[in-house]
Model the fold of this input.
Amino acid sequence: MKLAEVWNQNLNGATVRPLTHADDDMIYAFQAAHPDYFAHFQDHPVTRQEAIQDVTDIPLNALPEQKAYLGIFQDEQLVVLVDLIIDYPLPSLVWLGMWMPAKTLTTAKSAAYYRSLVGVLHEAGAVQLQLSVFMGDRQMKRFWEDLQLTAVQTTSVVKGDRTANITIYQDKFSR
Done:
């Protein structure tokens, strides 16, 4: 599935396209503008290398073709960075590794983009989306809960010598 192409057909006032290493400067600048996000699990601002490795990073047991690293653009400006792994960790499931809205994007608009994505994924046969939220990230916790995602598990993740507590949320798509 060409996710960006299909998603574009379901979006109004914005476009989606895959992000590649040709977009490294933009990806780094966008992520660097979100220091609070990175403070949840590392003791330093995001580096250029950390930001751009997201373009191709995949979790254990995933294949590169399962990854969709996308940008939502309004008037040529990146407004949401989206990192998805399709059919992960099981077939028909989608892992949302990152949903990073621009600080200028309204919550309502971000939610509308998310609902549009869910519609596209559901039409493609996905039955559920999962994501994680860092325990201290009250803004994203509220965002996902307002969208009716359900907390299903609390766990810890280790990155280097740091441990972060996360809550895993799921969105079961209704048939």
In short: The longest strand covers residues 162-172. The two ends are 20 Å apart (CA to CA).
